[in-house]
Amino acid sequence: MTQSTETSAVPLDSPPEIVGRIRDAILSRQRFVLTSHARPDGDSIGSQLAMAYALEALGKEVRLVNADAAPEHYFEFPGVDRIEITPETTTDADAVIVMECSDLTRTGVAGLGDRFLINIDHHAGNRMYGAINWFDESAAACGEMVFDIIKALGVPLSEEIATHIYLAILTDTGSFHHSNITPRTFEICRQTVEAGVNPAIMARRVYDSNSFGKLKLIGALLDQMVLADHGRLAILQMDDAMLEACGCTNNDTEGIINLPLTAREIQAVVFFKTSDVDGVRVSMRSKYDVDVRMVASEFGGGGHKNAAGFTLPDRLSDIQDRVVQRLTRAVNEGLRTRPS
Ligand code: AMP
Ligand code: MN
Q: How many CB atoms are closer than 10 A to CB 203?
């Protein structure tokens, strides 16, 4: 069989009608507060700042508010230092745009609920808490949805906007590893690169900006890694003492959870952290069809098929076995439908 060498435009669905409603709601208002989830990641920061630069290109006034500061290496990206960090605020803005939050409480910022809320999110189980709700579980990143809105607003992709859209997609796909990537993901990335994004610089800034302390922490965590389910499930565990011994803060843990997945046999990872919460923060990552979101939702959390999490007030020893057993089941169910 001969292979066609013809190239064709990637067929993309036109944005849904809700994008037009969000565009109109934005165009008819002047002052905005933009927020995202507590302990922000690349998608929350990227979505928020891409939206901020787009609204400002239209002459709108924008305030950015989050519960927690972004991990340090995100401060290399434009505008991240503009984000106010507070657990509570008041505003008389015309609208609050909440991105990346399945529930308003996920923002960790009190005092925003009485404004006109626009909810833009791709996490399963979104509670539709806004006056306008756009929930699209098929988006690889909330940044894909923000891209559609920016296009609908007629704002050209500046280098800042393109950088933040790319940041959102790069990080929320787990640097193009997860199962949520579609032709539209690459089409959007193509346009951002055309607008000036340098993928090599982005990857170096996001993934190669570790401190030496973090390298020590990686060593310590992997050294103590435990395997379950015939080596298919990796268990990581971290407490305050370990962080301190390596001279690290909680922000330094970002990304470490993905490392065990680089072993061929390992299908899922669970990371138990007892360092910054009363209780246990549980993060999970998986390959292919191993669905960790289902596991997270059974423990009161959420996320995506290949990246999810939850927090419990319990002692680690009281929950660990239950979580590992449930994950083992998810691994075995996922393997049955694994692509060859
Ligand atoms: P993390 O492991 O904290 O990086 O989170 C991975 C994914 O799970 C992200 O999409 C988070 O938004 C989501 N997630 C983590 N913890 C929770 C939670 N307590 N409730 C809902 N979603 C969560
Ligand atoms: Mn996201």
A: 13
Cα 303 to middle of ligand 2, angstroms = 8
- Burial (Cβ within 10 Å: 0-12, 13-18, ≥19) of residue 72: middle
Asked if the model's pLDDT at residue 7 lies above 50, the reply is no
Residue with tokens 């064709």: 8
pLDDT tens sequence across 114-140: 999 999 999 999 999 999 999 999 999
228 within 8 A of 328, measured Cβ to Cβ = yes
Q: Which ligand is nearest to the CA of 309?
A: 1
Residues with CB under 5 A from ligand 2 (ion): 43, 142, 172
Ligand 1 touching residue 89 (CB < 6 A): no
Distance 125 CA to ligand 1 centre (A): 12
For a ligand 1 pocket test, name from 47, 250, 310 the mutation site with the most ligand atoms within 8 angstroms of its C-beta.
Answer: 310
Cα 52 from Cα 56, distance rounded (Å): 6
Residue owning the nearest CA to atom 16 of ligand 1? 309
149-203 pLDDT per residue, tens: 999 999 999 999 999 999 999 999 999 999 889 999 999 999 999 999 999 999 9
The Cα 238–Cα 233 span in angstroms is: 17
Using CA atoms in the order 206, 207, 213, 216, what is the torsion angle rounded to 10 degrees? 160
Q: Whose CA is nearest to atom 12 of ligand 1?
A: 303
Q: Where are the alpha helices (DSSP H) in the chain?
A: 17-27, 42-57, 142-153, 159-172, 183-194, 199-207, 212-223, 240-245, 292-298, 316-336
3-state secondary structure 227-258: EEHHHCEEEEEECHHHHHHCCCCHHHHCCHHH
